[in-house]
Each structure stands twice: as C-alpha cells, then as structure tokens.
Write a structure and sequence with these properties.
With about 70 residues, this protein is α+β, with helices and mostly antiparallel strands. Helix content is about 20%, strand content about 15%. A 3-stranded antiparallel beta sheet has the order 1-2-3, with helices on one face. The termini are far apart. Mean pLDDT is about 80; it is low at about 65-70.
Length: about 70
C-alpha cells in the first residue's frame, strides 16, 4: 500500500522467558490484524488475508524464528 511501506509493530515490553509469551504475542498480533480488516485463513492460522474493493488482495504470513532463544 502506498505510503505505508515503512510501518512496523514495536513491542513495549519484553516477553521472552515467559511460558505464555508465544501465545500472548500471537493473540496481540491476531487482534491487531483483525482490527485492520484482515481475516485468518482456515488452512493456516498464521496466514492473514485482506481483500480490497478493486479485487486486489494482500496475504500476510506470520513466521517467528525463535531458534536462538536460550532457556
């Protein structure tokens, strides 16, 4: 979308280390996406789709690489 290429989400507090961190982070992300007109796909709950009136659509996949976090 023109003019919105540089938008990002910024966490206000650290969630690492908490058992519920992945779930809480996903719930926050999901809530944000749904508020902005995206819908989750039935096939993959990490895929969000937004359709526009002109027939265009935007697909966003959420991928988190957490392999470098030590417990």
């Amino acid at each position: 979308m023109k003019g919105k290429e540089n938008l990002v989400c910024r966490l206000r507090k650290n969630l690492y280390g908490l058992k519920q961190a992945p779930r809480q982070c996903y719930k926050k992300f999901e809530s944000f996406m749904l508020e902005h007109g995206f819908h989750k796909t039935q096939a993959d709950h990490c895929a969000f789709v937004k359709r526009y009136d002109e027939g265009d659509f935007l697909i966003l996949f959420l991928y988190v690489d957490d392999s470098n976090v030590s417990c």
